[in-house]
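Hi R.,

Here's the chain you asked about this morning:
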Amino acid sequence: MKNMKILLLASLIALPKTVFGIVGFGLNVIQDGSKLGGSSYTEGSGLTLATIESFEMDALPAGMGGYIFIDLAGWAIELEGNAAYSEYSFTFSNAVTEMEDIPFGWARVSSGITVKKNIADFSIPLLAKTALSVGVGVNSHSSTPRASVSMVKELLSTDDLTAEFDASSLEDKLIDYLKDNKIDNSGVHLQLGLRFKILVVDSHLNFRYNMTKDVYEGENGFTEIQFKLGMGF
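And the predicted structure, written out as tokens:
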């Protein structure tokens, strides 16, 4: 047993420093390359006809989150959690009333695990270490539903939409509705990234394609740009 301990200690001393790896964590700033476009939802007929027309998002969804990683001899495993948000507006109309430009929001909360491999190391002036990496991983997303006639019916607790109502009266029930009707999706992603390291300051710039259906309605996937800034030890 004593000889085994000595042999193990000697092997650890002999291993190259890169094998021990780096553990790090930090903050993540993200922006999606897709956004919800315009759409129209109609239900009923005659006096019960009601229509919601949604307009394209004002801007690409953006947000932030956090990450942790373990880096071992050029390979890395990274865990992250993020949230992104953007706004759009919609118009509601029925037989007796019409409300225009009602502001509304869309959000997604996401998590992912990525395995990365450095494929090239090079130097940039003033940067101690720079690496190009490729990665593959799995992801999951929970996003809020788009405004619809069914949403208005549930918020009003009635199928009768022929009466006038104030959109502000729905705000109290809206958060509960969005939680109860969140849309869950999962998939895989491919990633190309650059890593910059100065002492313990560790930053990553990643371009990712998420092969995940219907996070953005009707789309098979979406791109995402990530900037990560943290510390590695």
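The longest helix spans residues 2-14.

Let me know if you need anything else.
M.
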